[in-house]
Amino acid sequence: MKKGGVVFCMCAAILLSACDKKTVSEKDSDAIDHKVEKLLSKMTLEEKIGQLDQITSAGNFDELAGRIKGYFVGSILNETNPQVINDLQRVAVEETRLGIPLIFARDVIHGFKTIFPVPLGQAASWNPETVEAGARVAAVEAASTGIRWTFAPMLDISRDARWGRIMESFGEDPHLSSILGIATVKGFQGSDLSDPTAILACAKHFVGYGAVESGKDYNITILSTEQLRNVYLRPFKAVVDAGVGTVMVSFNEVNGIPNSGNGYILRKVLRDDWGFDGVIVSDWNSIGEMINHGYAESPVHAAEIAMNAGVDIDMESHVYTPFLAQLLKEKKVKVSDIDDAVRRILKLKFKLGLFENPYVEIKEDPVFYAPEHLEIAKQAAIESAILLKNDGTLPLDVSSLNAVAVIGPMADAPHDQLGSWVFDGEKAHTVTPLTALREAFGEQVKIHYAAGLAYSRDTDRKGFTTALAVARSSDVILFFGGEESILSGEAHCRADITLPGAQKELLTEIAKTGKPVVLVVMAGRAIEIYKELPLVNAYLFNFHPGTMGGPAITDLLFGKAVPSGKLPISYPKMVGQSPLYYNHKNTGRPPVGELQTIDNIPLEAGQVSLGNTSYFLDAGKDPLFPFGFGLSYTTFEYNDLQLSSTELTADGSLTATCMVTNTGAVAAAETVQLYIRDKVGSVTRPVRELKDFHKIVLQPGESQPVSFTIAGRSLCFYNHEDVEILEPGDYSLWIAPHSAAGLEGEFRLQ
Ligand code: NOJ
Asked: What is the best residue among 151, 219, 280, 315 to mutate for testing ligand 1's pocket, by most ligand atoms within 8 Å of CB?
């Protein structure tokens, strides 16, 4: 048992040797600090307050120029024309007293022009290198127009498929989100912010936004300190440690306090506990919205609350510029807080090299959609696809086919396969599955196309007849269904997450032809599919795959590429299971053994509570597919789990190893996952937690030992007193292909 012997964790504390020699980057940083102080000392209060103002590029140049000259605006979002960016920059640099450059910001979420799979799709790759490469391409393309700040990655832990923004997340797990968050930050920021292709990353939305009640956007969030610290804050901590430049405050309230006014979240956690010295930006009008929340009584009050809570930049609430000077005079805000905020902003501007090179070089030949960018996007789309069912129909053998039917509203939907949060990617560059199939196999096999439905929400059945005729005259049916891009994303939540429109009916009719059906879904969330799944022979799930989705899917369907994606979420059987996540608590009544279902309850059964457990009569206890699950065209076996020791000390580590074998006929990648369970805690612990993973490639018949090191300190967690602790006790571990399987071992933390 544990208790007694609790160790207070110093996981983040690094003992520095008493050494006065400074590294090059420390010297650079000293030099920048010196420049910042010099500049700050020359600034008037109005000039300082201007730096805290972020406004959108409304398209009226003279008005914007007027604001820059009159109010010393610090940053502008949503301008993408490099000529206009340079012209606005010239106003700031040449027509204001101190010539402080602007930063231009944009939501570059999953690509700028070349669009990558939505972040939730990228998370299915479980591959930080792929994610980093995508962010790098996005940075190169965006920076070429003068954009030097993006509002990504979104690190909101997302456990609810109803929430439209789940597509923008890395899913439900704090560890996976941390690793992929770090990869994204590295890709955007590079190793040196002054590189003209580097753009500042922004970890958002701080914090708890993914836990909005009932999956409805902007809704309230109620989270215990233990859940906040152990789940929702973790990816943010990871990217702060990795050097993310900025953090965005979320719209939602946490436990009754809107985050734009939440000093505990911003000052205590982010600044004091974690030592974050980058910039904190509000979300769009989130300071002003504290009035709607019923937390601020007026715009001036909202400005006071936000500044005191620690928000540096006011994005589009327009309350800092008009009210901060007055609030200062009334001693309601502190000049030291304003100075600190300005310091942080200037520091980033120096780091970005904007004082030396404020203008973007306008190249005649834009880097957009460069062949190597498209190749990286295709690879990302391949790795993001998850094979969830296959009776052997896939991969298709082109030589045995005479005709293929391509049916469904997403087969040729160049806009919609890009997904939500795309402002700059153009559908003219999208390669759809229909185009890619025709290009790859058009000469070898007949490709019969009939969408059946014009778009995902279409309920008009007039196209059914042709689609059915096409189905009957083909050897195999590829049904491309899903959601249009606009059905997910910000404020686009759904209470019914089944295939929209008449897609279910079309699929049902098509299946009646008796021809093999491969269902390919592109969507911004998990789609409730359990009723349609028995109708199909294979199910390839993609999220929205981006510009190169078509070629990626074509390679996968015909075996040129092998599916390797694994779910970054628990895939619900029914929407009513939401929120749904594998790392849940056990409860006092966990479901085990035979469960009573809605169909086997006797008529007029008496009320009993004995033996009742925590599950749904109609949906059961499990998701349709567990977190971490995904099939391949091969099979893998896990054998021979070995632990270097069954005892672990706080400062020690142990190694767990198992042998993974490719038992099939094709080379393929497998993501091997390490889970642990802390059996007893002074606060209850999850039934499983992902601790690590390795993605390996095995040739047919090849075996490889896969090892994981577990450090004692990595088992720290937060208790209800907001203290990070390490408790001695017994643990289970699993090396596993997904969260509901694996080879199990035991160890004890001393
Ligand atoms: C609101 C969104 O919540 C946020 O993610 C985005 O970055 C800003 N708008 C700016 O567009």
From this structure: 151
Evaluate: CB of 149 within 6 angstroms of ligand 1: no
C-alpha 288 to ligand 1 mean position (Å): 15
Burial class (CB in 10 A: 0-12, 13-18, 19+), 592: exposed
Instruction: Tally the residues of the chain.
Output: 750
Catalytic center residues: 283
CATH topology of domain 377-557: Rossmann fold (3.40.50)
| For the chain, domain boundaries | 377-557, 583-622, 636-749
Residue among 664, 672, 738, 681 nearest 715 (CA):
681
Q: Quote the pTM value.
A: 0.97
- Please state, in angstroms and as integers, the Cα–Cα distance from residue 413 to each residue in 311, 546, 583, 702, following that order: 41, 11, 36, 40
User: Helix, strand or coil for residue 223?
Assistant: coil
Instruction: Using the mean position of ligand 1's atoms as its centre, give its distance from the Cα of residue 251 in Å.
Output: 9
Q: Is the CB of 107 under 6 A from ligand 1?
A: yes
> What are the φ/ψ torsions at residue 84 (nearest 5 degrees)?
-65, -40
- Residue with the smallest CA separation from ligand 1 atom 1 is 284
106 lines ligand 1 (CB under 6 A): no
How far is the C-alpha of 421 from the C-alpha of 457, rounded, in Å? 20
CATH topology of domain 636-749: Immunoglobulin-like (2.60.40)
Our answer on whether the CB atom of 544 is closer than 6 Å to any ligand 1 atom is: no
CA of 283 to the centre of ligand 1 (A): 6
Query: Residue 648, Cβ neighbours under 10 Å: how many?
Result: 21
Tell me, using a 6 A CB cutoff, whether residue 156 lines ligand 1: no
Count the helix, strand and coil residues of the chain and give each as a percent rounded to the nearest 5.
Answer: 35, 20, 45
The closest residue, in CA terms, to atom 3 on ligand 1 is 283
The residue to which tokens 């127009």 are assigned = 145
Ligand 1 neighbourhood includes 151 CB (under 6 angstroms): yes
C-alpha span between 315 and 280 (Å, rounded): 10
CA–CA dist 717, 724 (Å, integer)? 5
Note the pLDDT tens digit of each residue in 496-551: 999 999 999 999 999 999 999 999 999 999 999 999 999 999 999 999 999 999 99
* All residues at 6 or more sequence positions from 681 whose CB lies less than 8 Å from its CB, including other chains: 2, 717, 727, 729
Residue to probe by mutation, ligand 1, list 78, 107, 492, most atoms within 8 Å of CB = 107
Instruction: Please identify, by atom number, the ligand 1 atom nearest to the C-alpha of residue 202.
Output: 7
Residue 16 sits at φ, ψ, to 5 deg, of -95, 140
**CA neighbor of 316 nearest in space, from 57, 513, 651, 507:** 57
Distance from residue 730's CA to the centre of ligand 1 (Å): 43
Res 11: pLDDT:
43
Q: Edge to edge, what strands does the sheet with 103-106 contain?
A: 149-150, 103-106, 75-77, 53-56, 314-315
For 112-160, the DSSP string reads: SSSPPPPHHHHHTTT-HHHHHHHHHHHHHHHHTTT--EE---B------
pLDDT, tens only, 431-471: 999 999 999 999 999 999 999 999 999 999 999 999 999 99
